[in-house]
Structures are given as C-alpha cells and as structure tokens.
C-alpha cells in the first residue's frame, strides 16, 4: 500500500494501518494524474468509499508537496454533506485518513453548540466539515474565513438538492474564492446536478466508475408477501430468523418509527430510534449504541438512508415501501458495503404487490419473492445456531471443572442440555404465528410467459361464498363503521384472511359479518371469552342468519305506513287522493277546507282580514316598496 503511485506517503501509511489491501474503483479513479488540480463530477454507487476517495484527491492540493500541514489558520478545504450524521461520519473518516499529516479538522453541524464551533474556527483549522445551513450561519457571522480556501467538496450533492439546500450551496460557492478546486460527488447525476456543476465548476472531468453499472451486487433482495395485518409480525420474524449483528428497519413516518420502536422494545429486542424529531445528541447516542453493540436494531426514517455507515450492518428491512427507486437503492446501500454481503428485505402487503413490482423493475433489481419466515423456520434456525455455538469449541478451563462435575452429578446431561436451550430461548423474542397466505407468482415476466398457457381457475365469486356463520358487531353506521377498517381489525383479532369474510351488512347501531364456516370456530376461539375487539367493540355469534328488519326496528327506524304524495289537483283520476281530508291552512279553519286558491272569498278568521280598516300585518310607515321583503320578513304592528 505504501508503494501506490499518487498517494501521499502519510496517507498511504494511514491506509496501511487501517487494513486497506485494495482501493475501490472510485478511489483509484481519483488518483489519476489528469485530476491533479482539476474539478470533477463523480458518480459512484453508495458504499463505494467516496469519503476516502475525495480525501486522496484533496491531499496533494492541500499539502502542496509537503508531508505535514503547517500551523492551522484559515481553512484550506471545505466538505459539505446533506445530513448531520453524514457530516460527522465524514469528519471521522478524514481524521484517521489525515492523522499522520497533523491536520486539524473542525465540524460545523446543525444541532451542535455553535459557540464551540466558533471557538474552534478562531483557533485555526485545516479542513472544515459541515452541513449547508450551519456553514452559511458561520459565513454570515464572519466566523468562517473563506479567503484561503483551496478546495470545496459537495458530498451526496443530489441529496442536498432534494432536501432544498440549493440556495445555501449557491451562497457558499459564491463566497468561496474563484480560483478553487470543486469536487462534486453524487450517487446519480440528474439534470439539476449537471446544471449546478456547469455554473460552479470549471471544465469539470466527469467520472463514472465501472461499478456504477451494476448496483449492489453484494446485496440479496427479498420481497416478502404478507397479509396486511401481519406486517409488524413479519418484521419480528425476519429479525429473529437472521439474527443480524446490526439491522436497520426503515419506516415512512416518525409516528411509525415510534410505534415500531415501542413494540420491538416490548419484545426484548435491543433497539434504538433515529428520526428527524430527535436532537443531535440523541441521534449521536443512537448510532454509537449500534456501533458498540449495545443495540442491534435501528428503526429509522429516510433521514438515515444516506451516508450512515454502521460496521457489520447485515440486514435492511423496508417496513414501508420506498416512494421511488432512488430511495430503495440508498436505503439498501447501508448494507453490502466494502465487499461484505447483506440482505435487503421488502415487507410487501398483498394489496401493494403491483406497486412493489414496479418499484423493483424501475430500480433494475431482481428480487426473490417468498413468504416471511414462519414460526417453524425461526425455531429451526435457532436450533442450528445453538448446535453451532462457538462455546462448545472452547476448552474446559481449570476453574470450571469442579462446577461442571457437580452439575453433571446432580442434574445429568439431559437436564443440563435442556437448561441451556431454555436460557438461550429466554433471551430471544418468540416468533409470531403468521396468517397463511397463497403466494401466487404474479410478476410481469411470469404473466408474459404464461400468457399462452392454460389458465388456473379463477377465485370463486362472492355469490358462491359457501357455508358460513354470522357474527354481530356492536358498531354501525352511526359510529362511522366502514369495511375498510373493520376487515383488517377482524383479520388481526380472529387470525383469518379477508378471503374468509363474506357479506358485511351494516345497520345504524350494529354490523353483521359473514365468516366462512370452517374458520368460524377458530375465529371465535382466537377472540376469546371476552368477546372484545379493538376500540371497545363487542362481537357475538348469531344462531342462523340475521333478521335485518328486526334490527332496523330496534334502532328506532320502524317502517312508516305508506302515504300518497300531495297533489295540486283534486280530480286527477285518483279517488283515494280525492277522499283524503284537506289540510287546514289556518287556525280555526273549517274541516275540509282546501288550498287558498279554492276560495273566491277569504273567510273572516283568515290572518290577512283587516280589522278596523287596517290590515293585521302592515309595513312600517314610510317604508319603501320592497323594503320589508328585502329583509326577508314583515313587521307585525302592535295592537293599540
């Protein structure tokens, strides 16, 4: 490693001590003599060693032919990263890479104490690593001197633009000296990145490493089809099946992160959360717990999808499907790094299978479709791990021999083995019993291959549901009951699938549900003697089919007797209407009085009869014509 052409000797020594035996393609590309002082736009896959790559590229520019840095003053280089975690990670990587050069590296990261950062800048530094917003703050306050800057590095440039940092980046680049070197690293090079490079780089050399063409060759993708109600149970079984040294579970929202973190904690998993609502200190402690082994599972939002490097990360689980192919690749790129193997598992509800297929196709990824590990699968894997436990290969120590003999004499080998198995299982969460589903291969490729072949018989229609039993729920339309949340609730509570649910008849105060007869008894047993579901809903089995008319009457909605619609004409050919007594239109009207238009003379008791020559209802004196109507009422004159 010390004989590498183009590597500064002090940097080569640090690489050798770190155990580097071979550079990655992007690291080798950055050592090209043609890039000595040139700007570069580099695209390479996640986990390809980009931080070390730009560290190698910057060393000749910053050291100027010397082996060590001189006394620190104004910064010579600025590295910008999109997230706090990535910025801190870049700082750690550069610290060991430049350790032999005497470089002083300062961090300017949002969420950290800005006063400490300002003091570090005042003391002098060679390299500054930070996030766009905090770097802009220091420039505006005059704490960050940009006059001596020789190079600027934009790490994960596409992500910074996606997060809305374009204005901050433009402000920083315009504040930097014009005669500087600009290196832009990005997983992809969309049009926005190309435009940014055109505006702020000078004749940049475009570098696309060969490994970019085949993304994530060390990652095994598995798509696990589950019943919608079993999504979290499937995640538990996947974690238990693989027992990865480190695993990340990605959720789409902070609320989902908090919910899943609480559930896994209750299930005896060593778990931490990572989301945008946490402070910088909490996020740092969470990642450190993953690195030192105090936690093995990290529940995170996509804020952690870029730049997080956890040694030994073997498993990535997508609890919620990514929104686009780039997010899928960046999430999955947390594993399978530096030549290590990893697994990326997508938990796919049956209703979202088509969307998952499109996502994988757009990302140019071939995934293996399967069911999640069952209870038997997890237990079998546990047995294999117990039999292969390295503790059995260790030599019996002298201080252990006496106790071992006593245990064998007192309990015997069989009881000791049983105790060992129980202790092992006590430290692990029990696997979940998943709802059995039929995993039919409906991928687009197979649909094309089977287009000309014989078709399988289609599923039976609802009309031929078969023998069934009826249950009544204590919730109806007045409680905003809807099948879209009743069906998943019944599946979760009764351990059934939606295929075993027939008709749903909703009433004002209750709902009748039809359950397949062969699943009805197990459904009732699963609910238990309390007969209680979620949200305080009660359930009861009926004897036979429900009486919908009786249920309607119980709700106070007895059918009304039929009546004829009113007619403007007395003799319209309908004798029943002609015999109907006419409604009184005023108080004291004689029986049989009809509409006002039937009378040529108004009766004395009519409300519009004048009294003492004055109308009973009159407009106010001096009112303009139409004034009372404009107000929507007449004013009644008080009696004298």
Radius of gyration: 38 Å
- Briefly note the CATH topology name of the largest domain: Rossmann fold
Number of spatially distinct domains? 3
> How large is the count of helical segments?
22
User: What is the CATH superfamily label of the largest domain?
Assistant: P-loop containing nucleotide triphosphate hydrolases
Largest sheet: 7 strands, parallel
> Which runs of at least 5 residues are low in confidence (pLDDT < 50)?
210-215, 441-463, 560-590, 592-611, 626-640
Helix content: 25-40%
Q: What structural class do helix, strand and pairing data support?
A: alpha/beta
Please report the first level of CATH classification, the CATH class of the largest domain.
Answer: Alpha Beta
* Beta strand count: 18
What overall form do the CA principal axes indicate? globular
Instruction: Please state how the strands of the largest beta sheet are arranged side by side.
Output: 3-4-2-5-6-1-7
Strand content is: 5-15%
Which CATH architecture of the largest domain is right?
3-Layer(aba) Sandwich
Could you tell me the mean pLDDT?
A: 79
Distance between the termini: 116 Å
Can you tag this structure with a few keywords?
single chain, 640 residues, alpha/beta, Rossmann fold, Alpha-Beta Plaits, 3 domains, 22 helices, 18 strands, globular, disordered C terminus
């Amino acid at each position: 490693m010390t004989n590498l052409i183009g590597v500064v000797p002090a940097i080569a020594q640090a690489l050798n001590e770190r155990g580097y035996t071979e550079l990655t393609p992007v690291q080798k590309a950055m050592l090209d003599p043609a890039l000595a002082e040139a700007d570069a736009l580099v695209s390479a896959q996640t986990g390809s060693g980009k931080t070390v790559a730009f560290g190698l590229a910057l060393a000749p520019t910053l050291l100027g032919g010397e082996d060590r840095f001189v006394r620190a003053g104004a910064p010579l280089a600025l590295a910008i990263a999109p997230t706090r975690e990535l910025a801190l990670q870049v700082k750690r990587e550069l610290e060991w890479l430049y350790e032999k050069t005497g470089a002083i590296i300062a961090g300017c990261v949002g969420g950290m104490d800005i006063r400490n950062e300002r003091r570090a800048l005042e003391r002098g530094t060679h390299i500054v690593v930070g996030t766009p917003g905090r770097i802009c703050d220091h420039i505006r306050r005059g704490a960050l001197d940009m006059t001596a800057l020789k190079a600027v590095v934009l790490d994960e440039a596409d992500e910074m633009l996606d997060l809305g940092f374009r204005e901050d980046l433009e402000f920083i680049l315009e504040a930097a000296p014009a005669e500087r070197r600009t290196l832009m690293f990005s997983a992809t090079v969309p049009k926005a990145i190309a435009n940014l490079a055109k505006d702020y780089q000078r004749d940049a050399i475009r570098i696309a490493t060969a490994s970019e063409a085949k993304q994530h060759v060390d990652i095994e993708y598995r798509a696990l089809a589950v019943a919608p109600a079993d999504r979290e149970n499937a995640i538990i079984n996947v974690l238990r099946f693989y027992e990865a040294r480190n695993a990340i579970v990605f959720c789409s929202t902070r609320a989902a992160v908090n919910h899943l973190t609480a559930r896994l904690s209750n299930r005896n998993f060593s778990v931490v959360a990572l989301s945008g609502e946490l402070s910088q200190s909490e996020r740092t402690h969470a990642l450190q717990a993953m690195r030192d082994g105090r936690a093995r599972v990290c529940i995170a939002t996509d804020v952690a999808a870029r730049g997080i490097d956890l040694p030994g990360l073997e498993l990535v689980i997508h609890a919620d499907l990514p929104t686009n192919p780039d997010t899928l690749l960046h999430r999955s790129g947390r594993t399978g790094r530096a030549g290590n193997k990893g697994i990326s598992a997508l938990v796919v509800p049956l209703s979202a299978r088509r969307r998952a297929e499109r996502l994988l196709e757009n990302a140019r990824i071939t995934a293996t479709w399967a069911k999640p590990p069952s209870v038997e699968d997890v237990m079998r894997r546990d047995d294999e791990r117990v039999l292969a436990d390295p503790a059995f290969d260790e030599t019996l120590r002298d201080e252990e021999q006496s106790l071992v003999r006593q245990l064998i004499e007192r309990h015997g080998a069989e009881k000791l083995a049983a105790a060992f198995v129980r202790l092992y299982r006590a430290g692990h969460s029990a696997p979940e019993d998943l709802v059995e589903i039929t995993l039919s291969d409906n991928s687009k490729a197979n649909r094309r291959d089977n287009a000309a072949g014989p078709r399988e018989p289609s599923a039976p229609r609802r009309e031929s549901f078969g023998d069934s039993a009826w249950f009544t729920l204590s919730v109806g339309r007045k409680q905003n009951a809807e099948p879209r949340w009743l069906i998943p609730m019944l599946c979760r509570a009764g351990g059934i699938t939606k295929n075993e649910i027939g008709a749903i008849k909703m009433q004002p105060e209750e709902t009748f549900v039809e359950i397949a007869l062969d699943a009805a008894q197990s459904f009732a047993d699963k609910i238990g003697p309390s007969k209680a579901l979620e949200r305080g809903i009660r359930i009861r089995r009926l004897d036979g089919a429900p009486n919908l008319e009786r249920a309607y009457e119980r709700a106070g909605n007895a059918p009304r007797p039929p009546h004829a619609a009113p007619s403007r004409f007395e003799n319209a050919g309908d004798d029943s209407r002609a015999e109907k007594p006419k409604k009184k239109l005023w108080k004291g009207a004689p029986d049989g009085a009809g509409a006002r238009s039937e009378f040529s003379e108004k009766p004395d008791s009519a409300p519009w009869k004048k009294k003492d020559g004055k109308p009973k209802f009159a407009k106010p004196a001096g009112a303009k014509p139409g004034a009372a109507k404009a107000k929507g009422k007449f004013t009644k004159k008080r009696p004298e």
